[in-house]
Specification:
Blueprint (H helix, E strand, L loop, with lengths): L22 H13 L2 H8 L5 E6 L1 H6 L4 H6 L2 H10 L1 E3 L4 H5 L5 E20 L2 E18 L2 E4 L2 E3 L5 E3 L2 E6 L10 H8 L3 H18 L7 H5 L12 E2 L2 E2 L4 E2 L4 E4 L1 H6 L5 H8 L4 H6 L4 H5 L42 H4 L16 E6 L3 E6 L7 E9 L4 E5 L11
Parallel strand pairs: 1-8, 3-11, 12-16
Antiparallel strand pairs: 1-2, 3-4, 4-5, 5-6, 7-8, 9-10, 13-14, 14-15, 15-16
Length: about 400
């Protein structure tokens, strides 16, 4: 990062957050800010933090339903949530961002104390593992003069330095995740075959691998509550623990995607899944989850000598305390960034992403396995936000070349 240049601006000449915004374009944001408890929250809980406020303009807030009347009728809690979600911890200096600061994940002020995410802290000779309270966060980088947030392109207004950091006027309200991945799939209605496949995979893991101990070598030595607890919930290889989340990305295949692969009903999925047994696993023959595993980049794999294509996200992470980031919004889905991406950044054997991307036309993105023999999947809907991370809806299955029906 380049050294700061120019003279220091006297603090008394730097505006407050409200004073930095134009009343003509941001009267609704100012109204919400004044009615909320955000100033108290900042002074009591984040008194020393540098902040960057993404302030949607009146047009954006109105489109999202935040009219003057709604803001007037809203509870302070509702407004606190909106404002905290758009207030990020850290210095998003637009000048520095334009100079090529790489993608960064910035926590917002908004947290959910009922949820936890894994946390590792390494010191010489030891790694301590545990959890921390879930913070809603955003993936941020510049694209020319526009600000990319969670894969969405935002037009920046006149940014302003404030006492605590920066105000960045934007033209969109950020989408806030409300559900875990599996809940989102269930509520949507387009993914019944994928959900059935996950249920079948879960049942097979339960029946064949004794997930409550024994074969889970790492679970005998380490408290499994670090990243996920299989005694609670599991959805195929998507961690679906009630209160412990892993951040990840899902390429979600619709029912139509299964139809294109010749799969139309649960009976066909059951036939594929019936391959699941110890002998076939040891011999490395493909099973149902081997067909689907490329749909979620896995920062972990089973800590067992069986089929290397069977992923259980969250197990290997215990022995690999610093896995690579696997939250991929649409703006970084390209081979330049992800073409040789190693999922085990913290050591251990290399585990490549094994996906290849292409952009057709102005915006359409295709994704496929590196060795896939089937047509590439097109992302028909990108960056749908869940608590774990983005869901990209795809119109075909991403089938590894090694999988044979």
């Amino acid at each position: 990062m380049p050294e700061p240049q120019g003279n220091t601006i006297p603090t008394d000449s730097i505006p407050s957050i409200i004073a930095a915004l134009s009343p003509s374009s941001h009267s609704l944001w100012i109204q919400a800010w004044k009615k909320s408890n955000i100033e108290t929250i900042l002074s009591q809980k984040f008194s020393t933090a540098t902040i960057s406020v993404l302030a949607p303009d009146n047009t954006a807030l109105t489109a999202a339903g935040y009219t003057a009347d709604r803001i007037a009728a809203a509870t302070t809690s509702e407004l606190d949530t909106l404002l905290m979600y758009h207030t990020l911890i850290g210095n998003l200096d637009p000048t520095l961002l334009r100079q090529g600061v790489p993608l960064q994940f910035a926590k917002s002020l908004l947290q959910d104390a009922s949820l936890a995410v894994g946390l590792s802290k390494s010191v010489p000779g030891a790694t301590f593992k545990g959890t921390e309270i879930y913070s809603y966060r955003h993936a941020v980088q510049m694209a020319g003069n526009d600000l990319m947030v969670d894969g969405k392109r935002l037009t920046l207004g006149n940014t302003a330095k404030i006492v605590r950091g920066w105000v960045l006027p934007v033209n969109q309200v950020l989408e806030m995740p409300r559900h875990q991945m599996k809940q989102w799939l269930e509520a949507d209605g387009r993914f019944s075959l994928f959900l059935k496949a996950l249920d079948l995979i879960s049942a097979s893991y339960e029946a064949n691998f004794n997930m409550w101990g024994g074969y889970w070598i790492v679970y005998d030595a380490v408290d499994p509550s670090f990243q996920l607890d299989t005694k609670k919930y599991y959805a195929g290889w998507i961690p679906n623990v009630a209160n412990q989340l892993m951040r990840n990305t899902l390429f979600a295949p619709t029912d139509e995607a299964f139809h294109k692969a010749g799969i139309f009903n649960a009976a066909q999925l059951e036939t594929l899944n019936n391959r699941f047994n110890y002998a076939e696993a040891y011999e490395g023959k493909p099973t149902l989850d081997s067909m689907l595993h490329l749909h979620m980049p896995a920062a972990a794999e089973m800590d067992m000598p069986f089929d290397d294509n069977w992923y259980v996200t969250g197990v290997r992470i215990i022995s690999t305390p610093t896995p690579a980031n696997t939250v991929f919004h649409s703006d970084i889905l390209n081979n330049t960034l992800l073409g040789n991406y190693n999922l085990n950044a913290g050591g251990g054997s290399d585990k490549k992403l094994n996906l290849t991307f292409d952009r057709t036309g102005a915006s359409a993105i295709t994704v496929n396995g590196i060795d896939s023999e089937t047509p590439a999947a097109t992302i028909t809907e990108a960056d749908r936000m869940t608590l774990q991370g983005p869901v990209h809806v795809v119109d075909r299955l991403i089938i590894p070349g090694s999988f044979k029906f």
